């Protein structure tokens, strides 16, 4: 098998090493356009997981790495001259040049040819005379560009500028430092990658060069507008290093910084629809990138090499091997990219968190990617985590999710919300036994607040014939049956109603009969902000509401709110999300009006605010009101995160007690970035920009995530939907799993016998006294003792 590798970075070299080691008969050539000692950047970080894979695949490389690794446990977070330290994190790093030298030597031992200072032939040329071409040619991959029609890359450029520099001493810990300058916020990411030399360290000489005190990578990053304002856009490498050393002089102890072909750049996230084309395959940064703030680039490339080499050995044909390689690696890479994107956005928006208390800020930074959680950090550094819990107001032994929250005259005993979920089980808008059992069961399950599905304010405003309503007095009576049950049988649990109108998304079948599909017969006319069907050619075209129609619908909301108050609901939420009527006014994709209710965001807000004011006027003053918004349409030209902040600001100014921050479902062509807690950054953005209470939603599935989001100050309440369908007693079970038995999650008296986890089977069986480990096949076991 003849193999060509384009690019002599860690990923390409390690792939060559592994493929050659697994089959010495393979003919492998690496093309590297630079000299052996040329490299960009300074230190690289590898996780223990990656190192374990290296040890298993090639002990020789692992031993060489072990001899030079710098390990450390602490992270220092410095802000405003104050340093907070969290331990137990376990990093390992080494110089990039050292890593390359180890891999060069291993290639030489195994017989891999490396052509230095030699640009590679094109992938197309190499593919004609090799069995496999590995394109490890980095973020600027010429292979990816040349075959863009096959790989279908998508490259996103982000909002910060950064530069890689080095300091000639070893930091004591991984260091994050925030500098609030006259030009804006700047941040330093620093970590050691070379150990100090043994013995006493001589002082710096007249030239300012430090003694043999190790080395650290220093990355300085800031928003692009800050970079321009500080004049760094006009600085060359030396000037940039000097300016950064001046800005972070305290962190550096007055020492200088140096570059290595260093230049200011904006990070680019690379995603490819396909990783292989014929017998050419992408690896490392050519295939994908993830922001440096989670230390992932070299790690991902090395793990790619491990997987590719294994798949080539495990499959009979190359197409099967390349398919298996991508199938194995893509989910891991996508998960890493989601975590990196969360981390990247956190640093882009770091100024929003500067008002947080120091320890909460530090906890927020540590958990920014969602890979480190509250539970994980308690294991790593219980003392640090306890101080953050104390600042949050957690009594001893009380997880953050079981602290109370007051909204106007309502005190919620814990921070868990059963999210509104359409059940499509009403008859002519009338909630029946299903709603009593469904909502009652979840109220008994311990959540602080249980929300109804979207309750429609008119028959015309239903999504489906199965949607519940509050447009008749009979509906109010039926809802009273539900609220009475909750208040009497689950005392301490609040129940809220969500009022809405379907707009252009109405007159459709029940979800399980064909979501968003029109009824086969009996359709009713629709109204909306603009005459735009939800799915052209599928859904009907709605009528644009005129002044008279706007007044009628506004009054329907107010009448439904009066009935909701009479029904005994504790909280009311106005549904302005997911493409329904009021959301349709907010989004520029669905509001094409030319009157006072269209055009600018202020105009698009006008009607939803009129409805909010009408509802607030009749809703009891002591009871809170919230508003659900779609913080992004996940579509070009739609609502943005900046718009969402302004929408939330407007509702808060009109008296909203909290903003329920959801996303999407406004247009059918949306492209959501699905993943764990994927919508919570938008709640975080609103909360920390406006300092208003928010409810976070969106694939929050574990109590550890709930605790983490609350403690980091990203939300005030967490709404969970599907977990409560899977387990109506999700909150009570979360309490039991955390050994919490306080008043914020009381078991109903009839259920108390089930408050402990049932036994699942015998686990104390006697262990065998004798084993056969180490006996040769056919050998007799020792005779038993009398």
TrEMBL record:
Domain FAD-binding: 3-337
Lineage: superkingdom: Bacteria
Domain NADH:flavin oxidoreductase/NADH oxidase N-terminal, residue spans: 401-736
Biased amino acid composition, Pro residues: 195-205
Entries under Pfam families matching the protein: FAD_binding_3 (PF01494), Oxidored_FMN (PF00724)
Spans annotated as Disordered: 194-214, 747-786
Protein name (database record): Bifunctional salicylyl-CoA 5-hydroxylase/oxidoreductase
């Amino acid at each position: 098998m003849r193999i060509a590798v384009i690019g002599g970075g860690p990923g390409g070299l390690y792939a060559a090493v592994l493929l050659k080691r697994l089959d010495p008969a393979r003919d492998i050539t690496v093309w590297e356009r630079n000299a052996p000692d040329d490299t960009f950047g300074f230190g690289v970080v590898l996780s223990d997981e990656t190192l374990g894979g290296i040890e298993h695949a090639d002990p020789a490389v692992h031993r060489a790495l072990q001899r030079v690794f710098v390990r450390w446990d602490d992270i220092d977070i410095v802000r405003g001259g104050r340093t907070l330290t969290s331990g137990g994190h376990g990093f390992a790093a080494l110089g990039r040049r050292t890593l390359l030298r180890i891999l060069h030597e291993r290639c030489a031992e195994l017989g891999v040819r490396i052509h230095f200072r030699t640009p590679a032939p094109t992938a197309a040329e190499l593919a004609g005379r090799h069995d496999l071409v590995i394109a490890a040619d980095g973020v600027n991959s010429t292979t990816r560009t040349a075959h863009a029609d096959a790989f279908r890359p998508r490259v996103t450029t982000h909002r910060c500028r950064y530069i890689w520099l080095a300091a000639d001493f070893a930091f004591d810990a991984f260091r994050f430092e925030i500098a609030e300058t006259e030009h804006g916020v700047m941040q330093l990411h620093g970590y050691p990658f070379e150990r100090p030399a043994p013995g006493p360290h001589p002082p710096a000489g007249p030239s300012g060069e430090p003694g043999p005190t190790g080395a650290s990578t220093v990355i300085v990053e800031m928003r692009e507008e800050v970079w321009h304002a500080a004049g760094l856009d006009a600085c060359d490498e030396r000037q940039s290093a000097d300016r950064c050393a001046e800005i972070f002089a305290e962190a550096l102890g007055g020492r200088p910084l140096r570059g290595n072909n260093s230049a200011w750049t904006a990070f680019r996230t690379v995603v490819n629809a396909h990783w292989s084309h014929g017998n050419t395959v992408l690896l490392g940064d050519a295939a994908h990138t993830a922001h440096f703030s989670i230390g992932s680039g070299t790690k991902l490339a090395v793990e790619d090499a491990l997987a590719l080499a294994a798949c080539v050995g495990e499959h009979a044909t190359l197409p099967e091997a390349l398919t298996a390689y991508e199938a194995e690696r893509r989910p891991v890479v996508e998960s890493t990219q989601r975590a990196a994107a969360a981390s990247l956005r956190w640093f882009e928006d770091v100024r929003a968190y500067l008002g947080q208390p120091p320890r909460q800020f530090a906890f927020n930074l540590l958990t920014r990617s969602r890979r480190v959680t509250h539970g994980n950090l308690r294991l790593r550094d219980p003392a640090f985590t306890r101080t953050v819990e104390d600042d949050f107001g957690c009594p001893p032994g009380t997880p953050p999710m079981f602290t109370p929250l007051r909204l106007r005259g309502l005190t919620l005993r814990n921070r868990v919300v059963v999210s509104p979920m359409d059940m499509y089980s009403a008859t002519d808008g009338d909630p029946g036994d299903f709603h009593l059992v469904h909502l009652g069961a979840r109220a008994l399950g311990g959540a602080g607040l249980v929300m109804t599905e979207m309750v429609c304010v008119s028959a015309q405003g239903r999504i489906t014939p199965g949607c519940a309503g509050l447009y008749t007095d009979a509906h109010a009576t039926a809802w009273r049956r539900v609220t009475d049950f909750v208040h009497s049988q689950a005392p301490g649990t609040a129940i809220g109603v969500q009022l809405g109108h379907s707009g252009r998304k109405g007159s459709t079948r029940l979800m399980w009969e064909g979501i968003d599909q029109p009824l086969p017969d009996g359709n009713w006319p629709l109204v909306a902000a603009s005459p735009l069907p939800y799915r052209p050619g599928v859904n009907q075209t709605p009528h644009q509401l005129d002044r008279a129609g706007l007044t009628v619908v506004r009054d329907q909301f107010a009448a439904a709110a009066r009935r909701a108050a009479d029904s005994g609901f504790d909280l009311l939420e106005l549904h302005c999300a997911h493409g329904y009527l009021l959301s349709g006014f907010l989004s520029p994709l669905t509001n094409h009006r030319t009157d006072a209710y269209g055009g600018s965001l202020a105009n698009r807000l006008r009607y939803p605010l009129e409805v909010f004011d009408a509802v607030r006027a009749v809703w009891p003053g002591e009871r809170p009101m919230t508003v659900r918004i779609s913080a992004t349409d996940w579509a070009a030209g739609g609502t943005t995160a900046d718009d969402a902040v302004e929408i939330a600001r407007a509702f808060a100014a009109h008296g909203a007690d909290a903003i329920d921050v959801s996303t999407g479902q406004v247009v059918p062509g949306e492209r959501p970035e699905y993943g764990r807690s994927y919508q919570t950054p938008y709640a975080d953005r609103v909360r920390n920009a406006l300092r208003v209470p928010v409810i976070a939603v969106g694939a929050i599935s574990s109590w550890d995530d709930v605790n983490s989001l609350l403690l980091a100050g990203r939300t005030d309440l967490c709404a969970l939907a599907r977990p409560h369908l899977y387990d109506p007693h999700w909150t009570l079970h979360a309490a039991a799993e955390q050994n919490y038995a306080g008043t914020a999650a009381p078991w109903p008296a009839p259920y108390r016998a089930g408050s402990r986890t049932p036994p699942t089977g015998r686990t104390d069986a006697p262990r065998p006294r004798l084993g056969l480990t180490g006996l040769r096949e056919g050998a007799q076991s020792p005779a038993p003792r009398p």
